[in-house]
Amino acid sequence: MKKSIHVFIFLLICCLLITLVACDGKSGVDAGADKGKLPPTDPSNILVAYFSATGTTKGVAEKIADATDGDIYEIVPSQPYTQEDLAYTNSSCRANNEQNSATARPAINGNVQDMESYDVIYLGYPIWWGKAPKIIYTFLESYEFAGKTIVPFCTSGGSSIDGSLSEIQALATDATWLDGRRFDASATSAQIKTWVDSLIMTSEETDGEKEMTEEIFLTIGDSKIAVKLEKNSAVDALVELLKQDDITYVANEYGGFEKVGSLGHSLPRSDVQMTTKAGDVILYNGDQIVLFYGSNSWRYTKLGTMQGISAEELKALLTKTDAITVKISLN
Ligand SMILES: Cc1cc2nc3c(=O)[nH]c(=O)nc-3n(C[C@H](O)[C@H](O)[C@H](O)COP(=O)(O)O)c2cc1C
After folding, report:
1. What integer pLDDT is reported at residue 147 of this predicted model?
2. Domain ranges of the chain
3. Which end of the chain, N or C, is less surrounded by CB atoms within 10 Å?
4. Whole-angstrom Cα distance, residue 216 to residue 329?
5. Which helix (H) or strand (E) is 208 found in, with range?
């Protein structure tokens, strides 16, 4: 037997063991608490987009579309995958070559009509070597996802969805991502409906959301800048600190693109690889606040985006002196 076959069988056995530990006792659906929830959404604003090479993910996608009443869109490769392309025991089959290439972006035939109209996108794919197939990367790079929530789901021979998430999340950092879920071919409509319903906020949760702090302020010299907040546990922790008192810290120049300083507190990290833009307010290393007037690619947790200041104005403000004093406040 070739070495690649041993490696794959070993991987599948590991995955099966992990699945046995992780499953909730029922087959078809992995256990796990989903992070984040969806506000009740009009079905016409829900899209179930999926790629399926051999039909398993398609079956799950159709059940999700039934459960949500949303629209369904199949991500169809311009060049369909043949059995040979998918023969993963052949180390140089097309699917393996694509998964081994950081830059592979298989072309998609057609596109989503009126993507702007969707607020929630369920995004489905089979796991290929622990990750999402590269055509999902093509899909994520083809549209704007700011303001949308993406709910990933996958099917696999046993691997969990977890290992596939960070790379695809990094391709749409403006979206809100839910943790997502793995299903296998035996997942029933009832199991899928239970999962879909569990993602929707109750009316108490929606009321709580409305009361959530959506912006904070940075005061630098005479300038007071509003920061529209992301929704994550670092932001929640920061807001809790600010409820006790304003925070003032000193930020120093770094790299010709940012001002960085210690917050004096550690916040929970959910770092993902991202490329920052001028105006981004970022948590670095759990306790450093970075104000960007330029761009950098690194693993960060985004806290928010400065509002009402142009990139030029921001650069002028932040680079007036090497060290600047920044006050963060709730109002
Ligand atoms: C190239 C390739 C790589 C795969 N890698 C994995 C893997 O790492 N872990 C796993 O559990 N299953 C793996 N599988 C199995 C698929 O994830 C599984 O059969 C999936 O349900 C297929 O979905 P589809 O019918 O929608 O294409 C792989 C399949 C292919 C073709």
Report:
1. 86
2. 3-205, 214-329
3. N
4. 6
5. helix 203-211
pLDDT (average), residues 32-55: 84
CATH topology of domain 3-205: Rossmann fold (3.40.50)
Residue nearest atom 27 in ligand 1 by C-alpha distance = 53
Closest CA to 289 of 301, 278, 297: 301
Residue 1 to residues 6, 7, 90, 110, 225: CA-CA distances in angstroms? 7, 11, 11, 40, 63
User: Residue 124 CA: which ligand 1 atom is closest?
Assistant: 26
Check pLDDT > 60 for residue 20: no
The structure's pTM equals 0.64
Our mutation pick for probing the ligand 1 site, out of 128, 153, 162, 164, counting the most ligand atoms within 8 A of Cβ, is 128
**Hey, whose CA ends up nearest to atom 23 of ligand 1?**
126
pLDDT at 92: 96
Lowest average pLDDT, out of 11-15, 27-31, 323-327, goes to 11-15
Q: Which atom of ligand 1 is nearest to the CA of 86?
A: 31
Tell me the pLDDT tens digit for each residue of 73-92: 999 999 999 999 999 999 99
Relative to the CA of 157, which ligand 1 atom is closest? 11
DSSP, res 34: P
| CATH classification number, 214-329, choose in 2.40.100.20, 1.20.120.530, 2.60.40.1180, 3.60.21.10 | 2.40.100.20
**Could you give the count of Cα atoms lying within 13 Å of 293 in the half-sphere of its Cβ?**
22
- Is 11 touching ligand 1 by the criterion CB < 6 Å? yes
- Asked whether 95 lines ligand 1 (CB < 6 A), one says yes
Any atom of ligand 1 within 6 Å of the Cβ of 52: yes
pLDDT at residue 177 greater than cutoff 80: yes
